[in-house]
Amino acid sequence: MQCPVDNETLVMPERSGVEIDYCPKCRGVWLDRGELDKIMERSAT
User: Fold this and answer.
1) How far apart are CA 32 and CA 20, in angstroms?
2) Range of 6's domain?
3) What total number of domains does the chain contain?
């Protein structure tokens, strides 16, 4: 997948069971539907 800002290839590490799309060049972060909710739920516990 390519970064929509600078067309760099995104890195997709997994954190706490949530896959995060991250651009190493511009440091942008993109989440798929429902991933932000999962992060918020896990941080509340």
Assistant:
1) 8
2) 1-45
3) 1
